[in-house]
Structures are given as structure tokens and as C-alpha cells.
Amino acid sequence: MNKTLFYRNLNDAFILVQIYVDDIIVRSTDEKLCKKFAKLMKNQYEMSMMGELTYFLGLQVKQVKECIFINQTKYIDDLLKKFNLMDCKEAKTPMPTATKFELSPNEKFVDISNYRGMVGSLLYLTASRPDIMFSTCLCARFQADPKESHLIAIKRIFRYLPGTLNLGILYLKDSRFDLIGYSDADFAGCKIDRKSTTGTCQFLGDRLISWFSKKQHSVSTSTAEAEYIGAVSCCAHILWMRNQLLDYGLNLSKIPIFSDNTSAIAITENPVQHPRTKHIDIKYHFISEHVMAGTIEMHFVPSEEQIADIFTKPLDESTFTRLVSKLGMLNFS
User: Fold this and answer.
1) Rounded Cα–Cα distance for residues 233 and 182 (Å)
2) Which of 90, 94, 128, 89 lies closest to 316 in space, CA to CA?
3) What does the pLDDT look like over 162-200, one tens digit per residue?
4) 178, 252 in Cβ contact below 8 A?
5) Is 0.85 surpassed by the pTM of this model?
6) Given Cys at both, which of 7, 196, 291, 315 links 226, Cβ 3.0 to 4.6 Å?
7) What are the angstrom distances between the C-alpha of 223 and each of 56, 150, 201, 220?
8) Residue 48's closest CA among 70, 77, 23, 67?
9) Burial class (CB in 10 A: 0-12, 13-18, 19+), 38
10) What is the DSSP letter of 145?
11) Considering the domain 176-301, what is its CATH architecture?
12) Total Cβ atoms within 10 A of residue 153
């Protein structure tokens, strides 16, 4: 795997260098290190410094003293023009709550190339728009054989975008620096194969730094099992981030993962005492080792406060709007 992120500690300061093909982002706790790096690179390569970061790989970055705001307004505008949806009727949410895809062999086929283009474009947009993560990933499951109902669903996502054109993620400067995870699962939500959907998100203090929505690989036989497998996925992400933070001198322990299922929490605390979980593959029980070691702590959160719920199922407008706000998203006009 090619490494693209480099860092170096020099006394009490450090410098970070992120490389993507021929684009480079440089950040340091000491401005002198940035200037020294720029001078070194200019002596070795033909390159130019573009100044403060404002645009990178389709991401618009606004930096002020108190915060950093990331959005993709220009990219959304280009997408709406590309697919001739500039004048579409706006929707309040990316997907209706009643959306449940089923096998419909008699349903009308649609242009597969156009459908895949729409899915791929939206997947790239999820880099700054976690609010459309679930709906986009759900539509992406049908790229091999899209039908008319799938096209209607993905157009609904595009109809949601004009009213949220400037929506993005806010990163406040003055925020806590503790790692927190949220894990949720929609038990047997897929009507086609009855597999559950896992949704997780991770925060550094109040800053959203990672999120995903994914259908589980196997069929769960209970809500507790589905939630437990979701917690395992969240734990794996948390541990990877914890190892990354070690490079910056942060050794975190007792990292909380919030779940709204007490049975799943009980399994993580003592899997040996739960004979009904024997059918769960042993690889999933590694989370229990980290709970016992004190690296991870499982905590209960009421369902209405479960932020990861937005990554597992379609929600009504009021619930959806409330969770979008809790993700740290806002319009930064």
C-alpha cells in the first residue's frame, strides 16, 4: 500500500504532509516548518505554493480563526447540471421512510450506465455529506441490475440536494479531544436477503471524523446479534484511529462506544455467559478482549439519542434534521 500521509516531530513541533498524486497539503504547529519544507521541495522539484488551502479534490475548505468548514457546494451544483436536475422539485429528506426495495422481476429496467454514474457521483459526495450516506449506499447495492424504483430513489437524493446546497461539516477549534464512537444496526432491514445494516460514526470531541453505512455479510438471528456485530465494526475503526493518534503522542484508553441495545452491551462484557451467542463467529468476540483490557467501554444511549441511527434506515423529517445537526453539519453561507 502506498503511503500518502507523512509526519515528523521536531522538538515540540510537528509537521504533517498529505500527498495525492501531484497535490500536497502541508500543515504544522510551527509556521517556520512549513516554509522550510516548501523551500526544500522547490529546490528539488518544479512546484508552486498555492497558499492557504481553500479547495482540494472537490472539497471546499473555509478556514477562520475559530473553525474549519468543509463542503462540496460547487460539486453539487455541477452534478445537478450534469444530470439535468437543476429545476427538480425539492425534497426535505434524501429518502422516504417507507422505502423498502424488494425483488420485482416484472419491473421496468433503466439505463445502467446512467444509474451507475449517478451512484458514483453521490458516493464521492459522501466525503462531506454523511446525511446522504445511508440512502446512497442503499441505492449502490443495485448497480448490477437497476430498476425503475431504484432510479426514482436515487433521483430523490438529488432532489434533496438543492435545498441543502451549502450544508457541510463544521470543525471547531475549541473542542474536546477525546475519541467517541456510536454504533447502531437495523435488524433484518433488507427485504431481499434479510441481512441487517450497520451504521457507525466516530468523533474527536465534537468533531465528526469518520462514518459509514454497510450491509452486514451474514444474516443475524436477533437484534442483539445485529447490534453486536455493528459494535465490532465500530470498535475496529476506533482501534485504527487510536493507533494513528499514538503517533501524535496521544495514548487513549476507556474509549466509549455508545449503543442503544443492552443485550449487545452485555455480550461484549461477558460472551462466555451467553450460550445463545455460540453461533456468532469467534472473530467477532475480539471486542470483548478490548473491553476487558480497558481500551474500549460500552455505554448505553437511548434510541432517540443514537446518532448512528441516521446511517441505518430512512428517517422522518424531524428526526433526520435533528440527527444531521448532532453530526455537526450546518449551512455556512
Assistant:
1) 10
2) 94
3) 999 999 999 988 888 899 999 999 998 888 889 999 999
4) yes
5) yes
6) 196
7) 41, 27, 19, 7
8) 23
9) middle
10) S
11) 2-Layer Sandwich (3.30)
12) 22
> For 83, how many CA atoms within 13 A lie in the half-sphere containing its CB?
26
In whole angstroms, give the CA distance from residue 286 to residue 229: 11
Q: Which amino acid is at 79?
A: L
Task: Give one DSSP letter per residue of 161-209, joined into a string.
Answer: SGGGTTEEEEEESS----EEEEEEEETT--TTT---EEEEEEEETTEEE
Domain boundaries, the chain: 5-51, 73-164, 176-301
All 3 cell numbers of residue 308? Answer: 448512528
Residues 80-108 pLDDT 10s: 999 999 888 999 999 999 888 887 778 88
Q: How many residues does the chain have?
A: 333
Of residues 200, 198, 185, the one with CA closest to residue 239: 200
